[in-house]
Automatic annotation (TrEMBL):
<dbReference type="GO" id="GO:0005801">
    <property type="term" value="C:cis-Golgi network"/>
</dbReference>
<dbReference type="InterPro" id="IPR036249">
    <property type="entry name" value="Thioredoxin-like_sf"/>
</dbReference>
<protein>
    <submittedName>
        <fullName>Glutaredoxin</fullName>
    </submittedName>
</protein>
<dbReference type="GO" id="GO:0034599">
    <property type="term" value="P:cellular response to oxidative stress"/>
</dbReference>
<dbReference type="GO" id="GO:0000324">
    <property type="term" value="C:fungal-type vacuole"/>
</dbReference>
<dbReference type="InterPro" id="IPR011899">
    <property type="entry name" value="Glutaredoxin_euk/vir"/>
</dbReference>
<feature type="domain" description="Glutaredoxin">
    <location>
        <begin position="26"/>
        <end position="90"/>
    </location>
</feature>
<dbReference type="GO" id="GO:0015038">
    <property type="term" value="F:glutathione disulfide oxidoreductase activity"/>
</dbReference>
<dbReference type="GO" id="GO:0005796">
    <property type="term" value="C:Golgi lumen"/>
</dbReference>
<dbReference type="InterPro" id="IPR014025">
    <property type="entry name" value="Glutaredoxin_subgr"/>
</dbReference>
<dbReference type="InterPro" id="IPR002109">
    <property type="entry name" value="Glutaredoxin"/>
</dbReference>
<dbReference type="Pfam" id="PF00462">
    <property type="entry name" value="Glutaredoxin"/>
</dbReference>
Length: 122
């Protein structure tokens, strides 16, 4: 992982990973114009989870091509959205919806340390 540390030789990846997973247990790499990204963000919003998912709008960043390459390499998922729970990619919008339909998404989210505040039944 040191290749991704941008020159920080002393970066403690274990500590950094624990910190990021606690602060941002759910991360969505999205594109603003993508209908699949929109659908995934809407489903997650319906769960009204705390802390709220960290949304990274890749197409709004200058380094979007680098992020896409890194995500593809690290998660083996090259399309958007790319949804990470506790740093592990669960795939994209169709995968998220399948987990929701199987009634396993809520359990996954809770195991990741988020609180579901929606009154909807999941």
């Amino acid at each position: 992982m040191s290749i991704y540390a941008a020159g920080e030789i002393d970066l403690d990846w274990e500590r950094e990973t624990r910190f990021l997973n606690k602060q941002y247990p759910i991360v969505v790499f999205s594109k603003t114009y993508c209908p699949y990204s929109k659908r995934a963000k809407e489903l997650l919003a319906a769960y009204n989870i705390q802390p709220t998912p960290k949304i990274v709008e890749v197409d709004m960043r200058d380094d979007n091509n680098v992020i896409k390459l890194l995500l593809s390499r690290l998660t083996h998922h090259s399309t958007f959205p790319n949804i990470l729970i506790q740093g592990k990619s669960i795939g994209g919008s169709d995968d998220l919806i399948a987990l929701h339909n199987d009634r396993t998404l809520a359990k996954m989210l809770e195991r990741a340390g988020v609180t579901i505040q929606s009154d909807l039944e999941f």
